Amino acid sequence: MYPSCSANGFQRPTDGNVEVGEGMNQMIEHKVEWIGPFLFIGPKEQNLFLRPEADRRGIYLWTVEGVEGYLVHYVGQTAQSFGVRFQQHIKDQLSGVYSIYDPSDLVEGKPTKRWEGMWWKAGAWKRTADFINNLMEHSKWNFELLKIYRIFLAPPEHESRILERIEAAIVDCLRSKEGVVASMQDPKIRYRWKLKKEASFKVRFVSPCSILGLPEELLIRA
Fold first, then answer.
1. Percent of the chain with pLDDT strictly greater than 90
2. CA 37 – CA 208 distance, rounded (Å)
3. Per-residue pLDDT tens over the stretch 203-217
4. Largest CA distance in the chain
5. What is the spatial distance between Cα 47 and Cα 127, in angstroms, rounded to a whole number?
6. The whole model's pTM is what?
7. Please, are residues 70 and 92 in contact by the beta-carbon 8 Å criterion?
8. Is 42 exposed, middle or buried (0-12, 13-18, 19+ CB in 10 A)?
């Protein structure tokens, strides 16, 4: 059973996540329904890794709960199961591959780094010794950071390229905003934008909570 949405609750999606126009010239509309928020650290009924939804695939949001709603920190999609993909994320987070953010600042929309991740720069592996030498401190920050993340999942049954385009469009939308919504997005992360000869389509989002910066509809152009 899914309780009503709060920082520790989630809502069950309704059936029918794709709607297609009747006419040849009418644009296809995809429905993306978010479920969550789930936790990395928490009781069984809320822990992402212990939920049946972890066996599905689709798009996901890493968020933190701010004063006015949920702030998106990362947007992803996976052709694997959510469980497999998030296990990879957690390994990279705990090993210093990903950046470690100050939890108190992050919930205020300020992505202050306590550790600069080793994933994006050539030769960054040379900093591994520094990470290990300060492992206790990094582990403390990581634990507190993982406690505040709230994860939303959207498991629509679409082909991988459609999921990639929706993922990229969400990021593009968030980066175009002003203030904390945009500042939460890492500009170094690259997404797969449109390719040649791809049709335009609409996406309609349904969410049980207020996810800041995410509109009800997005037009993904060819």
1. 70
2. 9
3. 999 999 999 999 999
4. 63
5. 32
6. 0.86
7. no
8. middle
